[in-house]
Protein 1
Amino acid sequence: ATFNLLLLPGDGIGVETMVEVERIIDFFNRSGRATFNTQSDLVGGAAYDAHGVAITDAAMDKAQKADAVIFGSVGGPKWADVPYAVRPEAGLLRLRKDLGLFANLRPAICYPALADASSLKRELVEGLDIMIVRELTGGVYFCEPKEIVTLENGEKRAIDTQIYTTSEIERIAKAAFDLARKRGNKVHSAEKHNVMRTGVLWKEVVTEVHRSYAPDVQLEHILADNCAMQLVRNPKQFDVIVTDNLFGDVLSDEAAMATGSLGMLPSASLGAVDAATGKRKALYEPVHGSAPDIAGKGLANPIATIASFGMALRYSCDMGAEADLLDQAIAGVLAAGYRTGDIMQSGMKQVGTAEMGGAILDELKKL
Ligand code: NAI
Ligand code: MG
């Protein structure tokens, strides 16, 4: 099969980690497992420097036509004072909005070789493999009214609004149940129906959507605050957690810490399935930012970006077997003792970005 990929390396370490993804794409192309046609473009500060915007219409057009967008990272001190509308992050926000990427998938996987780097005890995290499905385009971060007003008595009042509609909840619930069917067949839906009307509707709609996934997929409702506690008490009880934008932001960062470094964490953001083509818009990116403190030095851990490409194989290219191989290669180099600075442990072999990428490639060739 042939897939069109748009690579948007962006700024800082995004540029360095994307080079390692390109080497892996080359490997898959040469091995005849698939044909990836890649295009690249600028985003973030790099696009601002060249064009005065955080992403051009031409780059957006390429993104609309691609099977998957692989995104590095944007931002840095160089662009601290650029106008708000064209700040580097605006490039990512426009991609999410224009591609309609409403489902944010954040896996929390603990590679056995890194279990001691976790914030939690080894026995709690060894073998951990959970997926947080966060609603990304609605909820309290985006709804109006959103303002700070000064009252007659001089006091200020800040307002944020949370709104969720049936269709918004339905589509994120379906995404979570579909995913669970390919994993451990268990979904926890986290909300706070005890104190929020959006929580009441969330629970109601998720329950309704679940009817067409029962009995093979199991559904449990959990209050979001209890979910936060359970994630540190016994994270392995979870398979898929589906939740709204705000709770998802917090819970996914919490789950991430069970797995070790920011340099290890991939993510995917998915849009609706197009009824005509069966395809869905998708963007894959590491969770970390542009890391200005280490940018340009060849020190960045490329695993988060490489694993993000692995998610693209799985969710946009129907290449689950190859995604598994890539995961095995990553686990293999970690087991062999290769470590970038961010995950360095005593007695291990410290390497830079290119060496880590090269080691993963070598491991892949052996599998
Ligand atoms: P950051 O994720 O860039 O860095 C936080 C710390 O983690 C730094 O010490 C960095 O060196 C380290 N780190 C991150 N990724 C690493 C990797 N792959 N390998 C080794 N070490 C790694 O977050 P920070 O410092 O808050 O933000 C820096 C810039 O990135 C800012 O301009 C921020 O706005 C932007 N940013 C962009 C994001 C994106 O493109 N999606 C997300 C988060 C921040
Ligand atoms: Mg966050």
Protein 2
Amino acid sequence: MRVTIFGTGYVGLVTGACLAEMGNHVVCVDIDTAKVERLKRGEIPIFEPGLEAIVRRNHVSGLLDFTTDAAPAIAHGEVIFIAVGTPPDEDGSADLQYVLAVAGTIGRHLDRYAVIVNKSTVPVGTADRVREAVAAELAARRAAIEFDVVSNPEFLKEGAAVDDCLRPDRIIVGASGARAVAVLRKLYAPFNRNHDRMVVMDERSAELTKYAANAMLATKISFMNEIANIAERVGADVELVRQGIGSDPRIGYHFIYPGAGYGGSCFPKDVQALERTAHSHGYEARLLGAVEAVNRQQKTKLFELISHHFNGELAGRTIALWGLAFKPNTDDMREASSRQLMEALWNAGAKVRAFDPEAREETHRLYGDRDDLVLCERASDALQGADVLAVVTEWKAFRSPDFAGIRAALAEPVIFDGRNLYEPATVEEAGLAYYGIGRGRSL
Ligand code: UGA
């Protein structure tokens, strides 16, 4: 099929590459000329396992192309995806200006029936607004062209996006017309073998499904972080509690890992946006507010532990940091807990020596050259000359470290484990003091 995708961010690029991989002719449109040029050369602006290979392969074979020219791209697509950003505006609502601008552009150039698919995470009711924006432009041209607008939210996880896209566990299609559903059924047929993963519903339910999924996952994390905070006060070990409750299939083992708070471009933004949506419809979503508040507090946790350890005297101290990205297998620093920690340490006069397998460049882009930040090439380099070690991201490479080496390198043998990667007993046997999240030693 012929597919057009507006936006070459995470969602657009991964969706475009995966659709091309299945043999569709895909054109990706972006207003950023430099980015489009880089993509044409096969350079991927983000770190995402497996993405570069399928982008290059399909670009070379002619199935995947990039352009800044919207008009021919709109003429190309039977299915036109909108996958541009919806950043939060000042009050936390999703800012729809980019989505609606693309809808207007489509309306100005559409010359025959097409299915317009909202892939961006957008507030409930956006499909209607996109439909109105397209229709207004068509009316201005007196063009009697039919189109459908479908809500088809994505459920990609950064770091596993290609796999999630090629092997989705559900394909949510919010559409009111049988014609549009038939087009999407055909497009998604190669992703939908063995058993039917397509769940067809109305547009508003599809839009809410996306927010509900992320809000539920964020709720599980904040819930566990709250239990961790209770655990350390009552002298319990949250890791045992986690295993104890996870065995109930109604609760499950997934997404109940306590830690230094959730980050990324989705959870913080989507929980806030859903809260705003509820508010604007006259409902106060108290649970969502609490999920967010617990997370905000949890992101200060590592700093509090470190500061407490040094009796608040951090000036002149050097903290080794393992992990900068908001989670493993990405270089994404958006809302990363490491940022909160570094900024608090700097404000208190401490220095940071940090290592991350992928996010060093991005960290440098964000913070530039500064005396109180050294970005190290190896995990062991970050320890040299540091007082203590804090682990902020749960990269696999940090799971089985050489504790004796850590002890020898640090001025004070202490590990602050922001992701509960280690067993306190193992660390303590190696001669290091251990602070985790919800595991005994507390403030
Ligand atoms: C999230 C959802 O998991 C995807 O399903 C969704 O498609 C995506 O948002 C989106 O809306 O685009 P992502 O932001 O890539 O994906 O990250 P997650 O893997 O969900 O992790 C989010 C954060 O939660 C990370 O900071 C992670 O360290 C933290 N986390 C995760 C915990 O603290 N505990 C857990 O048990 C799990």
